[in-house]
Design a protein that fits this description.
193 residues, 20% strand, six-stranded antiparallel beta sheet
Length: 193
Amino acid sequence: MKTRAVLIALTLLAAIPNAFATSTADAEAFLKKSVNDVVSIAKSSPDSTALADSLRPLLQKIISFDAMTRRAVGPGWRQFTSEQQKEAIRLFSTLIIRTYSGKFTPGELPEITYKAATSPTLERVEVSTMTLYKGSKYNVIYRLEEIDGWRITDVVIEGVSMVANYRTQFDAEFKQGGADAVLGALKKSVSAP
């Protein structure tokens, strides 16, 4: 009986690396397809405003703006009302999409080299890339989690996490004026040209 239990346990443990490998491969395939889709849209876009409008539906499918916003706001998120949370997600999504699309120059497309993906946990995968864009190289790490399928939950560019960067800003706003201050800062950022 003990021998059988040990064999079952060993079989289950042996399956874990395969689960990680499958998760990593699935997440990496999702990211590559998503990036290719973004680049395809960028090819045909005449300017950054049109690009932002064109990218919005795609980015809302591949990025978990809920998770990003919640993490960017930090512990103060629990003090937001349900309506304030929805508004924060809407505004943060708009800010990220506008910022992301504003980085592209029509006609200039990035060259992306994918490095080996890692899986810190079964539900999270990090895919490192080297991106060459307009003559400059950037180390970019995409953090993905399984949230109704794989979704991007953070992007780390040259060692700086997008979520952590915004969290520093939002934390200061929250300490000064709570949820209303964070929403005010987001509205101001979104309305800026």
